[in-house]
């Protein structure tokens, strides 16, 4: 899969999830994200590895965003199966995000400090974008943004490290000098 296509499909899925959540259509975003994930798996050289990364990211995201909801830092307008759990569309978005570490975010592999810095900035910015579109509400903006920055500074390097081991797009026989 070309890197630009991976990036564009992630953006499409992100908007579908956020706008679906914002407009009481959470399953719309889940469906779009699911279709993109299925295409991603179809194009992977080793889909089982990619599926393991996607499942791990979904579980990690479910726990992380549920903690943010349970503590009252964030609130979502739709898609919650339980008041203290993350909505289904945000979990689908985490799974969608897991399609990027081995393609369009490959440049972050082996750079945990850069991944931490990018996570600390881009994570909260993504949630602010979601808030502007009506997909999430910050109940305590300063505390919520601080928690997101700290969390994403840890979670993105963790996901990038997992992607090294679970790379379904890596060449099956790397050339000498490839990392």
TrEMBL record:
Keyword terms, alphabetized: Membrane, Transmembrane, Transmembrane helix
Membrane spanning residue stretches: 25-44, 51-76, 88-105, 112-130, 142-166
UniProt superkingdom: Bacteria
Pfam families, per the entry: DUF2878
Keyword Transmembrane listed: yes
InterPro entries in alphabetical order: DUF2878 (IPR021306)
Protein name: Uncharacterized protein DUF2878
Organism of origin: Thioalbus denitrificans
Lineage of the organism: Bacteria, Pseudomonadati, Pseudomonadota, Gammaproteobacteria, Chromatiales
